[in-house]
Design goal:
The complex is a heterodimer. Chain A has helices spanning 2-23, 27-52, 55-81, 96-115, 126-144, 149-170, 176-204. By secondary structure, chain A is an all-alpha fold. Chain B has helices at 4-35, 45-54, 66-85, 101-121, 125-156, 161-170, 176-193, 218-243, 254-280, 290-310. In chain B, helix 5 (125-156) packs across helix 6 and helix 7 (176-193) runs antiparallel to helix 8. Classes of the chains: A mainly alpha, B mainly alpha. Chains A and B meet through helix 1, helix 4 and helix 5 of A and helix 7 and helix 10 of B.
């Protein structure tokens, strides 16, 4: 039971770190916070592996450490560091306070949904399940309520972390192959989006999604 | 249960803070001078200031009324009453009826009310605007304080400050994450309440935020300065008592209290040193932007509340 308490506690930190990713001033800082979030996710996997006694999850956490904590943030940090568009500011459409309250509301709604789940595996981890759903929606909100196209990439990454967590919570004994599928998926998506982002910046000299209305180059 | 020894302890800690308050404000002045690499006044300068002001003549503007004359006494006594109820050397509140979070917040509001009322009552338009600024600040800060303390109270199952503090010290709170977020947003509210940069400058009498002080002189001004230094100390003691009660005495024994006193002094000095560093490394924020900042505090406190509800 105690192990599940740690899982739930760590998932609370995931919400905080996802807000840090969303609200960070520039994409390079977002990359740092994303690495932090992925590290918390890895810790959560280890705690979950300890609580459920699943051997596969230890392997998952190791591959997630390599890909999400090191590789993906490093790619994004290197790609995004040199791209800066001072006219866009933080790029957020909503005020900061409203984003935080919005995350809180999303978490409540997701908890209402998650409390309806009657799977025996999900009894002890309902708060964490709610967090994994909320993480997905925070990522979605980050894409919708952001004008900076590089920050929108982080929205995708947050959604991806959320779905990864859902999978780990509901199917802790899933084979390693599934995990490899998710991890490679994320890496390639991020590489493609980073390349697209820098191409857009080179051609149009802007990172503002509202400016991307014409086809060029 | 309120016994005679509890009452004595409450009086003792209130008087102790009253005696130490100019020392604490002197410490902030010293830290600021060090960070500005200038010589600056000594640690005891605020005692000398107060002693000097107490010997001067007390002048009141001809248009001022009773609120203006009453304010220094009301402010000092209100803060002293709060100081009696806050757990400082012990885990429990010495005078339990005062050590309730709602009582403490409203007592602070009373002091603030009289502070701004005296500004309006002085008859000077500058003071009046300063008073309304002070109330605006209160409107912005109090929601953050209330909400974050309510989360802590819900987690601990009591609105008594000592009960919240001991629940946190013993690890009996249901959710660590919610506690930490509530503590952070409360610390933020406390920081604004301290009246430091980037939101305020506590020693700038010629500026709008200290506007209510413009017409005061002599012993009245000395009392207000003393009360303001005491308020800063009490506010930090409030945070320490609720969220950082580690090291304070769970029982009322002589050595427990002595150890609690040492721990409390160390925490106070560390916090004021940290506040000094923050205060001197930021620029003044425009007053128009302060609401945006304080709403972030409200957002964080509501997030803590949601974490409590969800059971994280």
């Amino acid at each position: 039971m105690n192990g599940f308490l740690i899982v739930n506690g760590l998932s609370g930190l995931l919400i905080v770190s996802s807000l840090l990713v969303t609200l960070a001033g520039n994409p390079a800082n977002s990359a740092r916070f994303y690495a932090l979030q992925s590290f918390i996710l890895v810790m959560l996997f280890v705690a979950l592996a300890g609580a459920t006694g699943s051997g596969e999850l230890y392997l998952w956490s190791f591959t997630a450490l390599l890909t999400k904590v090191i590789l993906v943030p490093a790619i994004m940090y290197r790609a995004f560091r040199r791209l800066s568009d001072p006219t866009i500011g933080s790029g957020a459409v909503m005020p900061t306070a409203l984003s935080i309250v919005g995350a809180a509301v999303a978490l409540i709604l997701c908890f209402v949904v998650a409390s309806k789940v009657t799977l025996p595996a999900a009894d002890a981890i309902k708060p964490a399940l709610a967090v994994s759903l909320a993480l997905f929606f925070i990522g979605l909100a980050c894409i919708v309520a952001q004008r900076n196209i590089l920050k929108q990439v982080f929205g995708y990454c947050l959604m991806e972390n959320g779905s990864h967590l859902t999978l780990a919570l509901l199917a802790p004994n899933a084979p390693e192959l599934v995990e490899i599928g998710i991890a490679t998926d994320a890496i390639f998506a991020v590489v493609v989006m980073a390349a697209l982002g820098s191409r857009i910046f080179d051609t149009l000299h802007t990172l503002d999604a509202r400016q991307l209305t014409s086809l060029k180059g | 249960m309120l016994t005679f020894s509890h009452l004595i302890l409450g009086l003792f800690q209130a008087l102790l803070l009253l005696a130490a308050a100019p020392l604490v404000s002197g410490l902030s002045r010293m830290v600021r001078a060090k960070l500005h690499t200038r010589h600056g006044p000594g640690l005891l300068q605020d005692y000398r200031d107060i002693a000097k002001l107490l010997t001067r003549q007390d002048l009141t503007p001809p248009n001022s009324g009773f609120a203006f004359r009453l304010m220094p006494a009301v402010m000092l006594t209100t803060v002293l009453v709060i100081a009696m109820g806050i757990p400082m050397l012990t885990r429990f509140t010495p005078v339990a009826p005062i050590g309730d979070l709602i009582t403490v917040i409203y007592l602070f509001a009373l002091a603030r009310f009289f502070f701004s009322l005296s500004g309006i009552d002085s008859g000077s338009s500058f003071s009046g605007i300063g008073g309304s600024r002070e109330l605006t600040m209160g409107v912005l800060v109090e929601p953050v304080m209330l909400l974050s303390l309510f989360v802590a109270a819900l987690l601990a199952g009591s609105t008594n400050l000592g009960a919240i503090g001991s629940a946190i010290a013993d690890g009996h709170v249901r959710s660590a994450t919610a506690t930490v977020i509530a503590a952070l947003s409360f610390a933020y509210a406390i920081y604004i309440e301290l009246g430091k940069l980037p939101y305020d400058m506590a020693e700038a009498e010629q500026e709008l935020q200290e506007g209510p002080l413009t017409e005061y002189s002599g012993p009245s001004l000395a009392l207000i300065k003393w009360a303001m230094a005491l308020k800063q100390t009490v506010v930090v003691a409030w945070f320490v008592g609720v969220f950082l009660p580690f090291g304070s005495a769970p029982e009322m024994t002589f050595f427990g209290l002595l150890f609690g006193l040492v721990a409390f002094a160390i925490k106070l000095v560390l916090i004021f040193a940290a506040v000094g560093v923050v205060e001197n490394s930021v620029a003044r924020v425009r007053f128009r932007l302060t609401p945006q900042h304080s709403w972030v505090g409200v957002g964080a406190a509501s997030l803590a509340f949601v974490f409590y509800l969800v059971g994280l």
